[in-house]
Write a structure and sequence with these properties.
Blueprint: H1 3-22, H2 28-48, H3 67-75, E1 86-89, E2 110-116, E3 125-132, H4 137-140, E4 148-152, E5 155-156, H5 159-165, E6 172-177, E7 179-181, E8 187-189, E9 193-197, E10 210-216, E11 219-225, H6 243-256, E12 261-265, H7 274-284, E13 293-299, E14 309-311, E15 324-328, H8 335-347, E16 352-356, E17 364-366, E18 369-370, E19 375-378, E20 380-385, E21 400-401, H9 422-431, H10 433-439
Parallel strand pairs: 11-12, 12-15, 15-16, 16-21
Antiparallel strand pairs: 1-19, 2-3, 3-4, 4-5, 4-6, 6-9, 7-8, 10-11, 13-14, 13-20, 17-20, 18-19
Length: 440
């Protein structure tokens, strides 16, 4: 329905209601029924929304919008042009924290990007696998990082074929390959593997899928990969998954190796809670710094009593690190960024070395609000400020800027934790620069 037709319909409806009312028949309840869902949204946003006081009064026509459109209208009308708040339909199976082409509620358990044939032998498109969840349909098909899919069900790969058939759906037959180089430096395919990609389903992604101690020159370096900083997964009610306990166990094991340095990999970490970020940071900073503020929240004036100061957690045993190397990407946001900001203040800017790509810049917490209209609202409800009260710190830019998806690193997109993997190697080269100098 075009805008003119829609506006005419509204005008006719209101005119009809007015005419009937003039004739003595009260039809105002029909207006209420058509707009009550958005009236509810407005009331919630005026009350709970961090910038509720800035929401302008809406034209009556806006109250006839779908709930999702009305919510978006409100969030985009504030001065901050809010991009963090969102709204969902209960019946829609969508992951609010979808990362690239990977979602946890219904997927093959992988992420990918499309790339033109790196061997340059053809102009064909390939789907380059960048992430695979253990035990997922993708993993069971034999896929791993830096595999290249060329066909799906006998159809040659294109960008549209990839997004249509590799994100979620039924069982597919695929053909994939591995890349290598000749002595001349020419890229070549080493194989052609036919496999079955079973139907997509809900994937419980581990929060800390890789942790290890790397030893060089008698120096131990702790490595931890975090995909989200949550105490438990939101996609399952199972009590068998305890992310908080998993983090505690892995950090205790790393600490037992007495590391002198740490590489914290947050390239996949795009959501979490302030409490989990606080706890992870508390394992890192020296015990003498535990009396300092980790972060603090600032709510709107109606909920000022919820403003909270979070100190570092003294209940966990610190690694006593003076410096940290953090791997980031343009997925890194929210809790991961609050952690980075806190460490920069506590350890000093020069002692928090960022590697990878610029982060997102999320400085607010969103809160879930549900209702009978079949929608879930997630408005921003408070700022996450640092120890000084500053919440305008924005996105973080790395000192060492590296995009692992670049064709420069076609062969070094190895598994997470592999010492030759692009970003981990970059971090290790910063910790042990003399090794690189000796090789040269």
């Amino acid at each position: 329905m075009n805008r003119i037709t829609y506006n005419n319909l509204i005008a006719v409806l209101l005119s009809a209601l007015l005419l009937l009312a003039c004739k003595g028949e009260d039809r105002s309840h029909e207006y209420v029924e058509l707009t009550e869902h958005n009236t509810w949204v407005m009331n919630i946003m005026k009350d709970k929304y961090l910038w509720g006081d800035q929401i302008p009064e809406q034209n009556y026509k806006a109250y006839f919008y779908t709930l999702t459109k009305f919510f978006s209208t409100l969030t985009q009308s504030v001065k901050q042009n809010d991009s963090w708040s969102y709204c969902q339909i209960d019946s829609a199976l969508t992951d609010p924290y979808e990362r690239g082409n990977f979602n946890r509620l219904d997927s093959y358990g992988m992420d990918f990007s499309t790339i033109t044939d790196p061997t340059k032998a053809t102009s064909r498109t390939f789907a380059r696998i960048t992430y695979v969840v253990e035990g997922s349909p993708a993993a069971n098909a034999g896929l791993h990082r830096n595999c290249f899919i060329s066909e799906v069900d006998g159809t040659k790969m294109t960008a549209s074929v990839a997004t249509k058939n590799l994100k979620s759906g039924t069982t597919h037959g695929i053909i994939f390959h591995h890349l290598d180089t000749l002595e001349t430096g020419q890229y070549v395919w080493t194989d052609s593997i036919t496999a079955t990609l079973s139907a997509s389903h809900s994937i419980v992604e581990p929060a800390f899928p890789c942790s290890k101690t790397i030893t060089r020159d008698a120096t131990n370096v702790a490595y931890l990969l975090a995909t989200r900083l949550l105490p438990r997964p939101y996609e399952t009610e199972s009590s068998g998954y305890d992310f908080k306990n998993d983090m505690d166990t892995k950090m205790a094991a790393l600490k037992a190796d007495n590391p002198k340095e740490m590489i914290l990999d947050l390239r996949l970490c795009n959501h979490g809670t302030i409490e989990m970020a606080q706890r992870l940071a508390s394992y890192i900073v020296p015990a003498a710094k535990k009396s300092e503020v980790f972060a603090q929240t600032e709510w709107n004036s109606r909920y000022a009593d919820k403003n909270t100061v979070y100190n570092y957690d003294t209940s966990v045993s610190s690694m006593e690190l003076q410096r940290i190397y953090i791997i980031m990407s343009n997925y890194t946001q929210g809790a991961a960024e609050w952690l980075i900001r806190a460490l920069k203040l506590t350890l000093g800017e020069e002692n928090v070395i960022l590697i990878g790509e610029k982060s997102k810049g999320q400085n607010v917490i969103t809160e879930f609000i549900g209702h009978e209209y079949g929608h879930r609202l997630f408005p921003a409800v408070c700022y996450v400020a640092d120890a000084t009260g500053n919440y305008s710190y924005g996105a973080f830019s790395p000192q060492s800027s590296i995009s692992e998806s670049s064709t420069t690193y076609l062969l070094s997109m190895k598994e997470y934790g592999d010492e030759e993997e692009t970003l981990l190697k970059a971090a290790l080269d910063l910790i042990f620069p003399e090794e690189e100098a000796e090789e040269e």
